[in-house]
Amino acid sequence: MSGPGLKHADSHSAIHEAALEEAKELNNILARLVKAGQTEKALQTAYIAVEHWETRTLRHAQAEEEGLYKELAEEHPELKDAITALVRDHNTMRYLVKQIKQTLETDGFTEEVLQQFHALVHVDAYHNFEEEKILPHH
Known about the structure:
By secondary structure, the chain is an all-alpha fold. It has one domain (4-137): Four Helix Bundle (Hemerythrin (Met), subunit A). The chain is built from five helices and no strands. Helix 2 runs antiparallel to helix 3 and helix 4 (80-107) packs antiparallel against helix 5 (111-134). The longest helix has 37 residues, at 39-75. It starts with a helix and ends with a helix.
């Protein structure tokens, strides 16, 4: 069973918005650190951003997949394709976070890492938009 917050479209949207705004702010901080040439601080901040994505967004994604999406698929079989696409978004975000972690461990903070963090924000924003289309079914 998914929690009441996941089922209620407004509170679910608020969860997404808060996490996305935090991610955007972390990206802004990273960009400022890079511009200032503070590579070591950028690396530390990148690890904080990874933790943010893992604990805020990806943990939430897992809860959606184990609860909300399963329930929606059972109650509304016509949403199967939409749910499959949403899970694909989650997998894309998991992939990007994994790539970022590998790069941080092998090469440290790079411009590519910042680009991947920006890509995460874009994938997540689109995902939230698409997810909100199907939430009224619940």
